[in-house]
Amino acid sequence: MVNYRRNKSGNPDDEFFFTIVTGNRQPWFEGKPERDMVHNTMGYIRKKYHIVYKAWVILPEHLHLLLKSPAEDYSRVIWDLKRDLTFKFRRLGKINTGINLWQDRFWEETIRDDKHYDNCVDYIHYNPVKHGLVTSPASWEHSSIHSYIRKGYIPQDWGDGSWIYIEGAEYD
Prior knowledge:
disordered N terminus
């Protein structure tokens, strides 16, 4: 059995990068209504736990979130997000009992410094291009890239038509 420890420093300034994958990588969030449901549930979780989403993207079979959570146990935050979405999908008849909407676990890492933070934000925003869903990150509706563009942090054409190198993502 793997002896895995999550970072539970209790530091309210900690920020975390998460990857949350659907069961068997099924594209449960392929349609706009499903991605809207995920986004709305993220809003509910934000209010419930007072978290701040620093960057995010909703893809057909996984989510990437970079967040800051005052909740000491961020596993509870992710568990609640997954539970609420599973309930909604079952209630709407999109999945049946016995079908797993999610993989059992999620992948997380603590943001170490500003460079690591920037790399994670770039990775999140470029992910729809990486997976061949669009040719421009700004073309993907369900992403925080649009607030980054509005605030002037990145240009509208960031990542258009060219491969972006993101340090630390070579292994992915």
